[in-house]
Write a structure and sequence with these properties.
- With about 110 residues, this protein is mostly helical.
- Helix content is about 80%, strand content about 0%.
- It contains four helices and no strands.
Length: about 110
């Protein structure tokens, strides 16, 4: 595997982990519906991470549904630069939808 491919994989994983940590922070510091939104995004991101480790299509679809529904709300509610982190979660969901419908293949079937 080329060095740049490995380095870009590490960078994408770091962005996903940062997005998870930001949503944990938002779940602790906010109240009301924004707290539940952040908790749902945490669970969706954890479902993506578990799906990659367990090679589970059901977890990929659960993570996709949660992130696709809740990430736009977080993008709207977050101030300034922190909109980038929910955008990463939305990009993960859109990537799975692309892989499912365009290439007719879920990420767990890749290897």
């Amino acid at each position: 595997m080329p060095f740049l491919a490995i380095l870009s994989g590490i960078a994408i994983a770091a962005l996903i982990f940062c997005a998870l940590l930001w949503q944990v922070y938002r779940a602790v510091t906010t109240t009301g519906l924004l707290r539940w939104n952040a908790i749902g995004l945490c669970l969706g991101t954890l479902a993506f991470m578990a799906a990659a480790a367990l090679r589970s299509d059901a977890l990929f679809l659960l993570g996709t549904a949660l992130n696709l529904l809740l990430a736009p709300i977080a993008i709207w509610a977050d101030p300034r630069w922190s909109k980038l982190l929910p955008a990463v979660q939305l990009a993960m969901a859109l990537t799975v939808i692309y892989l499912l419908f365009v290439s007719s293949n879920l990420p767990t079937a890749a290897a």
